[in-house]
Amino acid sequence: MARSASARCLLLTLLLPLLLGACASALPEARQVGEQAGARALLEASAQAHGVTAFRQIRDLNVSFDGQWESLVQKLQPALVDADFRKSSEERLLFSPVPLIGQRHRGPGGSKQVTRSNTSVGVRYNDLSDNGPETLAAAALVADAYRMFLLGPIHFLEGNANLELAGAADVAGRPCDLVLAVRRPGHGLSAEDRYLLFIDRQDRLLRRVRFSMEGLASTQGAVVEVNFLDHREIAGVRWPTRFFERLRKPIPSLPVHAWRLTGLDVNRGYAEADISGPAFTGSASPAARAFE
Question: Which CATH number among 2.60.120.10, 3.30.70.890, 2.50.20.10, 1.10.10.10 corresponds to the domain 28-284?
Answer without folding.
Answer: 2.50.20.10
